[in-house]
């Protein structure tokens, strides 16, 4: 039954399929390319509209993250092996680097000998082992064991020992000095007599000086604020009864506002205690304060300050112990070749017995030591530079002084000198200097001074020159030669012998010096010195002729 129904259905479907194509083949077929009459109607009022559709603003749902790093677990097994670590022995590679040759030396030495039995021994050490520490040693002995009068009775020797050291810490330098000096002379200002023998030991004079100094100062001096301070001590005595101790305290501060304006304060405190045949247990105190301000700009220089001084010397003509003196300096250069300058200053010029014997080593006992009061001094003139080769200065000084010192032969012993003071001395000085340099091969320094004295209590400026001239020449023709030729002339000296109350005018002195040094190598040289080559038997001090021609030669080393 079921099979019969299935057959009936399949038959109907088959008839429908086959009947469609057959019916289509009975209709007539239209020809291709035929154009039929067609009417097109175009209407502008027709509007094509579409219905509104709501937009979807919802975000797509986030999908759950997919893990891409699966967890893995490993099982690690430790294996311990009884193996000792490998020991490597290393050594640095040794290479010899030669030390570069330089001109730096650690010291110099000189040995020489000349007539008048004059040995010269000199040693200078200045090792540089630390950039923050420096020190040096200076040793020198120069002797003239015979002299111009009675052989050894006019002998003269000089010995110097000096130690210096500096320590550099950040911005300051801490320095120290120690020195010892021994100077031996003889009072040979007498006329030798054949029947009279003078023993050298009875007229010998020996000066001993011990000095030390410690201080601190700023290294960089161009900083806006600078400072420095030092403490100095000096012990001095001679072979007789003169002694002198001295303590000095120096302190200064400076301030630089800009490149044109600067100023500062300088101070000195001195305690001196001298003793001699005619005085003892004297304390000479001296304090000086010098504030100043300076302005420099385009050839103009102005410096204004003051000298404020207190000193306690007891002298017969003393009016006060406290002084205030103005100081003014002005210079203006219209051109580098020409300028004018002027200076006005008052001061108290401190003096000691040690200062006097440095000027005149034949000084004997004196009645009193006095400071010189410079009531005022004017210095004015012109100066300039020509072609960067020649510097010159011409001018004059005029000053008024109280207790200006002079020298005369002692009233008790004419072979020695004593101090003579004038209550009111006026000094007029004309001076000129010239400096010339040519290509580092030649240098000339020349100066000329002429003095006029107007005195109050004494007749003449005893043992002070009326004129003085110096000409110094330095030649360096090549790297081997260094030559110095100097001329010193002085005249118009008047002397007084207080023992006989006689006066005399000393002959002019003319002293020519020559020093030549020849370097064979960088470390070995030879030298020769000549003094008083014009063979003048002049006297700088009354009755004391100097040595005539003296020649000294020797060798020098650098190490």
TrEMBL record:
Residues of the signal peptide: 1-24
Localization annotation: Cell outer membrane
Major site of localization recorded for this protein: membrane
Keyword Signal: yes
Coiled-coil stretches: none
Top-rank taxon: Bacteria
Keywords associated with the record: Cell outer membrane, Membrane, Signal
GO cellular component entries: cell outer membrane
Keyword presence, Signal: yes
This protein's name: TonB dependent receptor
Organism: Cyclobacterium xiamenense
Highest classification ranks of the organism: Bacteria, Pseudomonadati, Bacteroidota, Cytophagia, Cytophagales
